[in-house]
Every structure is written in structure tokens, then in C-alpha cells.
Amino acid sequence: MDLRDDQPTQHEIGRRTYLIAPVEPLDVDGVRTVQVGTGVFALAFLALLPFYGRLEEEGHTWLLWMCLTGVGLGLLGIEYCKRRRATRIAAGADAGTGHPGPTA
Asked: Could you tell me if 61 and 48 are in contact, meaning their C-beta atoms sit under 8 angstroms apart?
């Protein structure tokens, strides 16, 4: 292994010099990220629910509906990411790469 392979690549554009590190992209499918975001929206909805009367008086009930929308879209996003993960695993297994993709 040559030490120069681990060095960042330099690109000069105009008067600026950019360093590009030789880093492989993460092999993630996004399921856990979307699950956490959906959970945060659900917790926010539940935390705001006891204050419904005050939110209604001040005209801020949209906060509740935004949280509920975040939960709904998050549930759709979880299903989308799970299907995408299954497709990637199937494609990896079909290609015979020996690495079917992420399992988490």
C-alpha cells in the first residue's frame, strides 16, 4: 500500500484550493434515521397536547398538526426506506458480491 493513496487530492478552482479526502461513502439505508425523526415528532406532539387550550388561544394549533404530519410522513418514510433496503440487499445477493448490504 502506497502512502500517497491516503493523501487528500487537491483541486484548484480560481484562487481557492480544495482538499478532497479519499473517504468511502457510508453504507447506510436511512431506516434508523427516519425512525428517530418520527419518534421526535411523536414526542413533540404528545408534549404539546396538554397545552392545546393555550395553543388555540394564541392561534398556534398548527404546531400540533405539524407534529402529527411529521409522524405520518415519517411512517411513510420508514416504509420507503425499508423497501429500498430490501431492494439493495436483493441486488447485492443477485450480483453475488458477497456483501448483501446493511442489516440494521
From this structure: no
